[in-house]
Amino acid sequence: RNKKRTLKKKRFEMISVSPSLVLHKSPTFSFFLNTSIRQNPTCRFTVRSSFSSSLQQVEKSSSSSSSLESRDLVPELQSPAPLPAIKAAKRVVLVRHGQSTWNEEGRIQGSSNFSVLTKKGEAQAETSRQMLIDDAFDVCFTSPLERSKRTAEIIWGNREEEIITEFDLREIDLYSFQGLLKHEGKAKFGAAFRQWQVDAANFNIDGHYPVRELWDRARTCWTKILEQEGRSVLVVAHNAVNQALVATAIGLGTEYFRVLLQSNCGVSVLDFTPRIESGSPFICLNRLNQTPNSPVAAGSSGGRKTSKRIILVCHGSTQTDAEAGNPFSGDQTMNMLGVIQSQKTAELLLDMNVSSIVSSRKKASVETAIAISRVQEAADCLGADCVPRNVEMKQMENLDVKNILQQSKKDSSVISSLRPGWLNGFEDIILSAVWDQSEEAWQYLLKELASEAESERVVVVVGDPAINIALMGHCLNLKKDWMGSFHLDAGSISVVDLPDGPAGRGVIRCINYTAHLGRWSIPITRSTVEDEMF
């Protein structure tokens, strides 16, 4: 048995996953060598028509697409592609691999398999392992590429269950771009490289549309992941493929490539809840890109530097939150847990030079805003700055939506803010009112960010989860129907970068980040609700 296992391992290691080696084109068909390894590994050829109806439909739609410089997000106004029905609630945790040698060099990796984890990458994977060490996973999927496999092995540790290698989890196929330094790609491919930078959804190379192919592959991966038994699933893969997995799960198209960031060893969580009538499950993005490093540290957003940023802060926990998770309770102050959470958030934001803090008028939001302001203004005493910071504080009525939520005729005990997709429980008229009011708030925040007096400007917004979810929806140019696709916890932060300024599209650096709360945060993989609530 050991001899057979060794032979299978050697056979797999001899197979390159570079597209130039596994793709054989003919005028009619494309042949892909599927090297997916399961518990009973087999190698087989699959045949797919390169002129499928779905591809023709995509090509047709691209003919009327906007110019390369357009950065507007226009989501498809339709439900996500149907996914397999599930019998019980399922949580899927996505992790990007740690820093690789080619990440460090600035070399385009694609689905090539020549880079390995750096020492920093190994350390990042170990940090993620510690983050997830107490959480019980039933199964682990990983890409076949070495940088992903090694990250999965570190995180999986001494768990007995076998890691499943899935070929379709490999990184985006970039064909002739792979192996080039970025300046080499620019020099060699010119306009094509420019298109890859500014209009990736319509980027074509070697007769392929890599991002479109990736989105198709991500949908296939979801079918395999959800059909696997187990309620808690770990998936370790790559930047682009994890973006595609998140986007396809909640129904976003290829125009959202590079909008939902995935940093090295960043953790994203999706909750899948079965429907009573069966069919495709309800899907909620519980968190996005919880990283080993600070989410507000200096860095690029989608490969571009940013000087304009909005940080959405959920106020600390209140007594009613602790007792029932009621999302539309009255105007209450924070409890002791909320005070700790607000202080932890203030400490995290000490690394940022905050320009202004805009909060709801509700007591918990005001208390959280004051805590952030005091730490900011004491930056010189705390050694974070050489001079005191002057932070402008404002309160905005449009950030108060609890009064709207209180008008709901739904049973408040059923609509718990701890439940994934809890905003779906409200009537359409209630959600419309929240959405309209939040749009006014979003436009005000963009004006607040547009100050020409400061080249770099950071605006902190403090409110409850409902308003912050709606603000993210406006940033992504979504409709109110998407509000139930996101989740935020008390004390969490979400970071929106605008690298092209307030008039450009937003890039989501993280959603529902809670690592700064330490022991006071909700664990990543453990469900926050009882089974019967599903």
TrEMBL record:
SMART domains assigned to the protein according to its UniProt record, in alphabetical order: PGAM (SM00855)
EC number, UniProt record: 3.1.3.63
Gene3D superfamilies, per database record: Phosphoglycerate mutase-like
Keyword entries, A-Z: Chloroplast, Hydrolase, Plastid, Transit peptide
Keyword Hydrolase assigned: yes
Record's GO cellular component terms: chloroplast stroma
Keyword Translocase included in the entry's annotation: no
Residues holding substrate: 96-103, 147, 182
Entries under CDD domains matching the protein: HP_PGM_like
Pfam families assigned: His_Phos_1 (PF00300)
Catalytic reaction(s) noted: 2-carboxy-D-arabinitol 1-phosphate + H2O = 2-carboxy-D-arabinitol + phosphate
Positions annotated as active site in the UniProt record: 97 (tele-phosphohistidine intermediate), 171 (proton donor/acceptor)
GO molecular function per UniProt: 2-carboxy-D-arabinitol-1-phosphatase activity
InterPro entries, per database record: His_Pase_superF_clade-1, His_PPase_superfam, PG/BPGM_mutase_AS, PGM_Phosphatase
PANTHER family: 2-CARBOXY-D-ARABINITOL-1-PHOSPHATASE-RELATED, BROAD-SPECIFICITY PHOSPHATASE YOR283W-RELATED
Similarity comment: Belongs to the phosphoglycerate mutase family.
The protein's name in its UniProt record: 2-carboxy-D-arabinitol-1-phosphatase
Organism in which the protein naturally occurs: Parasponia andersonii (Sponia andersonii)
